[in-house]
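Lab manual, section 2.4: Encoding a predicted structure.

Procedure: take the sequence of the chain (70 residues), apply the prediction step described in section 2.3, and record the output as structure tokens. A sample record is shown.
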Amino acid sequence: MKIIDILYWVVGLIAAGFAVYKFYLFAISRGTETNSDLWIAIGAAVVACVCAVAYFLRHVNKEEEIHITQ
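Recorded output:
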């Protein structure tokens, strides 16, 4: 696994966790800042999706070699 793949995983998981946290704050709060929490949650979810797509697009058409020994 390359460093860039690990970076995609780490950033994607952090962004997904942050999106869930901000959405939770949006769901339980009744104040005036709820719209900002929602937009931040949507932005973090987009970042997580971009990281996932970038990771999987790097691995398209890459086959692992299977060595068959006799």
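Check your result against the sample. The chain has two helices and no strands.
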